[in-house]
Fold this sequence. Notes:
- By secondary structure, the protein is α/β, with parallel strands linked by helices.
- It is 38% helix and 14% strand.
- Helix 6 crosses helix 7 (205-216) and helix 8 (231-239) crosses helix 9.
- The protein is globular.
- It starts with 7 loop residues before the first strand and ends with a helix.
- The model has no long low-confidence stretch (mean pLDDT 92).
Amino acid sequence: MSVVDTKTTIQGSEISFPVCIAPTGFHCLCWPDGEQSTAKAAEAMNICYVTSTYSSCFYDDIVAGAPNGLRWIQLYVQRDRKITKKLIQKVESLGYKALVLTVDTPALGNRLQDNRNRFSFPALLSTKNIHVPIEENSESLLSVSSIDSSTSWKDIAWLKSITQMPIILKGILTREDAELAISHNVQGILVSNHGGRQLDTVPATIDALTEVVNAVQGRIEVYLDGGIRTGTDVLKALALGARCVFLGRPILWGLTYKGEEGVRQVLNLLKKEFYRSMVFTGCRSISEISQDLVQFSKL
């Protein structure tokens, strides 16, 4: 085990280890430079950062701060399709490499914790790249009236007609939807339950992963987000068939603690733990991590 290689690729781009940054909105709630700091940390770690539609920094500024970083864009299809088309064309011109379409949010989940905590957005906070009204009411603090709840499988063909970026579907949890994704010629699936904030009692993503991987049969890449907290968690997800994992909440915790440096600290902790887990299970490269490893070691 003198040489252990944690590198892998996603959609043909190399990353230093199989952990990337999931899309979350309003990073300026956590740190003054918001998404710019997050992007800089991702670039420094040589991993992918998925920028949210609801970014609180301009896409141009995010790219300017981390010009060599690998970036994907997360998309909510808007009721005004011209807005969606303009956003896609904008990020593609800025060098974004993939489009991550969120498919589990025709409406916003009932965020009881936010309501109980009387959470509210600062007056000066806004989405910089798309106009989304922020409203305080009994159901939601973020209006989703602009999101097109009629979005369906047929819209994938429309998206393909306006972009050359590969399309990844975020929010797939079942064999049936995985097979539909394949039949609609998308390039990837992100197994996600939206941080458990949409449907109460929805399965954990690690429990849904095997079903999706078995349906895909290696035809497209499968990723996972949700519940990843240690390097061993990363190893488990890869052993069960994920190409890489995406982090949400831990990135925001690091950003809140110390901006770019805090995000890098979170990522370095996971990278060291993942490296050590590979060493202790005899895996010298990502390709040596298999499902037999989970069954054998009872991880």
